[in-house]
Specification:
The complex is a heterodimer of chains A (164) and B (308). By secondary structure, chain A is mainly α. Helices cover 77% and strands 0% of the residues of chain A. In chain A, helix 1 runs antiparallel to helix 2. The termini of chain A are far apart. The N and C termini of chain B lie far apart (77 Å). The chains are: A mainly alpha (164), B alpha+beta (308).
Chain lengths: 164, 308
Amino acid sequence: MTDEDEAAFDEFVAARSTALLRTAILVCGASAHDAEDLVQGALEKVYRHWSRIRADNPEAYARKVVVNSAITRSRRRKVIQEITFAAPPDTPVEGPDLGLREAMLAELRKLPARMRAVLVLRYWEDQSEIETAALLGCSVGTVKSQAARGLARIREAMVEGVPA
Amino acid sequence: MNVEEELKEAMRVQVGDVYAPPSMGSAVRRRRRRSLVRFRTAGAVLVTAAVAVTVPVVLTNTEPVAGPASGASAPAIAVPGIVVPDVIGMNAKQAYHLLEQAGLTPMLMTPGEGADEAGLVAGEKVIQTSPAAGTVADPKALVQIKVPWVPAPTASPEAETGKPVDSGLGDLGDGLTWMGIHVGYLPEGVKWSGRSYVGGFGPKSATVPYVVGGLEEGMYSVQVIVTADQKLMRRDGEQVAPGTWVSNYGEGGEKLDFGSGSTLTASRELSDDQVVQVLFSPDFSKSLGEAKAKEEIARVIAGIRPEK
């Protein structure tokens, strides 16, 4: 790897790591600290192949690695949570002070990881349906249906959840 | 407001205030590279701390919602270029926010990053941006934010001259005897890298990296550090022998679990005025597995003896 490659990598990391970190937090529902670890791991993969991919949209590559490892991690967390809280109360005690936004985020976290990733990519990152499909390695149709179902579930929960 | 918009806003509230630490790039490299100067790390961590101090009231009150990182908000589309706002004198975090909202890509510079000397933040007010205020930049263009910094203080006047120098100790033969110590045991396949560095870890300090075959230049597998600086003596890990502790530490010296991103580290009081520390690179530890790596690092540090 040449010095110029190294410098370009530094610039790439400085410019993109905050955006990647935010996406990772939203997709895997982890703390900033865990998400940082995840992004570091993804950037290391980018670094390893940097001389090959730097000319060829490294951002998309990094985002793909981040999103996919966030999905994996979030699935693992779910398993752990299900084991730990074998019988959680079905309707968590939602205080009336729980704002609409927090309720939405809570609902978002309850969605299957892949569906959540679709919502994050579409509505947080403003990625097109085609881009989202490419990032997740699925068809545009799947993106459409997952986004619609995810939004519907959140909307439904909002309608039910609104305190009278 | 529809669900999409509401969801977007909820996401913005959740992560809008999260920033990647400026040390991310070096953290990524450090997973595979030897650390030459531990104090440099302290510098990088300080930057994070310094910018995390305050979110100015001005900013928390300005609510215009810029699109997340994309700069896709209306004004960015309406004009072909974005005038870089004047953020000199602002708190670094405030400046970051503002540039981001303007549709640019702010980049907080780590003092001394890439330079030979490590640096410490000497203030959190922005002294310079590049490109400068008033320049017309493309949407999403990179704008570097610089804060004042001073060269990192070394642990004692003695270490002032202690800039790490390649092959600082000269030809060490097999590389096992140096600075009054002898490294009696190394894991199989690990050999002296041919390099050594003086002074990076405080007074009377030196460090020698050892490598397994086929490792790229600049990488290490096992690194041994000798110093008179008691700060390197970490007693907060698992005690594996009298005066010897083992644990995993992250970029800023914080304790972490075994795994990539943390460095398996053993510290030992060799004598009253000498501390030795052994580091296994994250890659090397991983290749051994946690149990084996801990066993091997304990053997390496136990095998070090004073050599008169």
